Predict the structure.
Amino acid sequence: MQLEFDIDKLTHSIEDAITGEIFLTETIPLEKTDLNNVSIKNGWKFNWKKELGRPDKQIFKLVLQQQPSVIQGLISLSVMPDHIFMSLIETAPHNFGKTKKYLGVPGNLVAYGCKLSFELGFDGCMAFIPKTKLIAHYEKTLGAVLFGGRMFIQTQAAVNLIKRYYPEFLTNKSY
């Protein structure tokens, strides 16, 4: 599946679109009990129930530390032999379009995938299949490179993302 997601702004967590206030977040596994809140009838574009039922996928939700019951975005990741593959990513309906509540949700989720890649010994490498019209956007915002129809986030680009969203992760590491 080709992904189409807009990196609205690379922030240092997520940012209130009106006030600029920064909020701390957590990225944690999506639970079955969350599925009623992330359905197509609630404005989500993808069938996250189907995605959560796949054994080869790990689904994570981004929440505010101070408001953990409200999902800000979701990402579906697969562990490959030498990298993480991102098959789906979506911001919550309230974070989409001109009236979005928070900026930085997609960047935060992609940075989490890169962090997971480092934790698994893959040097931050992550891949996804982009929609053609967004290739230049991902190259510019994420530092991703196109190769064989897939976009790859390599080590240095992953480090740059992690420095923004998870700087404590890189403490005492030489990247």
User: Anything to note?
Assistant: The chain has one domain: 14-164. The radius of gyration is 15 Å.
